[in-house]
């Protein structure tokens, strides 16, 4: 995706484009919608923090005065309320470039809250102030969860608006060579909820006449000589510049200067793709912003922390879901002939084979009948998927719809074969046909869920599934895992791509 480098909006006047150009388009600017959404988030966060502080006090002291305490909790609560909201503001939790899409918004909100909690604890200890730990613990736990949940609800509302009305998305003019413009357009279209709608393109002067008036449905509205005029004519509020031989550093710098007197943002989209923000660092050298890309991390303390979290969480779910596991096992046993658990050979980290556990959802001779169904395969690539597979039992259809057949994989997580989040565990025959790029999926443990699960599962093409898996391998983190686990609940409830 694009690396966003935007200049702040300016209020100075700009040259008015010709009347013939502006008469063709009537658009409402994106800024009012974004400001409205930022105000909504501010009100929502203020309400959540206030309720967390009040709730923490009521839960700790049961609504009674803190008898025997010399600490004025009314002043403490008011101060904590103000400082918390200030911490959110200082952590740029309302930056219009991160709200509404991606994990960075959640990461900033949670990080600001946890850092504040740690700072309050340290200051209280050093100053020997005996503020109730129960009050602080309840307040920060409720507030942090509430802030993240509030952002999730607000984001869903924003996404619904973006589906109905493109006015809630940025209007983007893409600038670059025709081939690179097509690539960037395809990438932005693959994530419509990110809020970038391509409304036009500017390509090299030498290609404006020879090429068609549209590039993959995007109108060609100008050349490199008329970038700003074209943006104003089509009502674009963002100019996304991708690779082009004629766009030298000097021309880009001048373009940035010209945009300083407008309300149009400048976005640079390097050819580097599928690398997440935490691995990218910009360092200016002699006036040149060099992009440093850190290598993916496949070992170290983060991996140990991930493994500990996986096993702990899996153990808790097994204990809590044991009645459901027993019920499903009885349903499978009593409704069809064969074993309760189906063990299938899969390939894990480093190419090591292991047996993945599932509740049996097919007839016992399913593997033997696969050959006769290959012609009805509904997916491309190396996988076999069939929406109405005759080998699936009646109970199996219910289990697959709600992904209940995969619950025994919790034991794979406990045994260390799998992770809660990771690439889809492949079959040995699939791995045998991997090329060097696809084989990178085996650098991390396969997961019970992953980006493929929350992005459509069986509805995804082979190419899209591989792309998502490789993106996770390159950019995994515990914060990303938490977001995927949360989104998995929604994907399972909605039964998206389950068959």
UniProtKB/TrEMBL annotation:
Keywords: Membrane, Transferase, Transmembrane, Transmembrane helix. One of its GO terms (molecular function) is transferase activity. The keyword Transmembrane applies. The chain crosses the membrane at residues 41-59, 71-88, 109-127, 133-154, 312-332. It is found in: Membrane. It comes from the Bacteria. Residues 8-20 have a biased composition (Low complexity). Residues 306-493 form the Bacterial sugar transferase domain. It holds the Pfam family Bac_transf. InterPro entries: Bact_transf (IPR003362), EPS_sugar_tfrase (IPR017475). Its main location: membrane. Residues 1-20 are annotated as: Disordered. It is a multi-pass membrane protein. NCBIfam families: EPS_sugtrans. Belongs to the bacterial sugar transferase family. This is Sugar transferase. It comes from Luedemannella flava.
